[in-house]
Write a structure and sequence with these properties.
Elements lengths: L1 E7 L5 H11 L10 H7 E8 L2 E6 L15 H9 L6 H6 L8 E4 L6 H8 L3 E5 L3 H16 L5 H7 L2 E4 L3 H6 L9 E4 L14 H9 L6 H11 L3 E7 L12 E4 L3 E7 L6
Parallel strand pairs: 1-2, 4-5, 4-7, 5-6, 7-8
Antiparallel strand pairs: 2-3, 8-10, 9-10
């Protein structure tokens, strides 16, 4: 069974669909194919329509659409009422009124944490190696840029974000001394839960499409060599230390823990 098919809902987007098919090495859905046949042949479909790009399971009983939407109500609420520099992620990164660091996010995913950091004034470089996830994230950033005329605050935030599709280890290895980031952020894919409760719909899809980050321990070692001030690793509360390396300290919430590896004192 092939994993993904592209479903172009509007012929006006056919050129975009063809580009995606070439990049992702996956077919474009035959409109005459039955639902039953589609489900037998493919696990997911990338739906391209007037609202952008979204990932759907062909079995719609699994979960709904996964879309990168920085103008969503949830993202808008968090950037306006999320707690600012008092948030755990801001404290872990070291954001303050005197310091808005350059952050390198090595495991961008759908850019949720990167967007939060950019909303706090950080310059953020997102690295995502998976082509499908990168396509969703790139689509979300482009749509956010297009709405900048109506939401200037959103446009300013997205203007602080750059996106690179590359293996993070390769990206780190090619950094020059002048390009070293202030902070490196790593959010490895959590292992699949053994409990019966369903994981978030994004995680269901990502575990199927991306799989676990088996090289995340190696990535941490490389990050420690490149970051100027600190490396921050996001983990579930119950997870062991990444690479069995003890952090300088941790900030622990209800379900998430930020392990901070302090390398140098933050600038004033």
């Amino acid at each position: 069974m092939s994993t993904i098919v592209i479903n172009c809902k509007n012929s006006l987007h056919s050129e975009h669909a063809n580009r995606l098919a070439k990049v992702l090495c996956c077919p474009i859905l035959d409109p005459d194919l039955s639902i039953e046949a589609k489900q037998q042949m493919f696990e997911y479909e990338l739906v391209l329509d007037d609202h952008g790009l979204a990932l759907w399971p062909t079995n719609t009983k699994l979960h709904g659409a996964i879309r990168c939407d920085f103008s969503s109500a949830a993202n808008t609420h968090r950037r306006k009422h999320g707690g600012g520099n008092g948030q755990a992620i801001a404290k872990a990164i070291g954001v303050s009124t005197r310091f808005t660091p350059r952050v390198l996010d090595l495991t961008a995913g759908l850019g949720v944490d990167g967007f939060v950091l950019a909303s706090l004034g950080c310059s953020v470089t997102l690295i995502e190696r998976n082509k499908v996830v990168h396509s969703l994230l790139s689509d979300g950033l482009e749509r956010a840029r297009q709405t900048a005329s109506m939401d200037t605050a959103l446009g300013t935030i997205v203007g602080r974000i750059s996106l690179v599709r590359q293996d993070s280890s390769e990206f780190l290895a090619l950094l020059s001394p002048e390009e070293r980031p202030d902070i490196v952020y790593i959010d490895p894919m959590f292992p699949e839960r053994k409990k019966s409760a369903k994981v978030k719909k994004e995680m269901q899809a990502f575990h199927s499409i991306v799989g676990p980050d088996y090289d995340s321990s190696d990535l941490l070692a490389l990050a420690l060599d490149q970051a100027k001030y600190r490396v921050v690793v996001k983990r579930s509360v119950s997870a062991e230390w990444l690479g069995d390396l003890k952090p300088s300290y941790s900030l622990t919430g209800k379900s998430t823990r930020f392990d901070v590896f302090a390398l140098n004192k933050l600038p004033n």
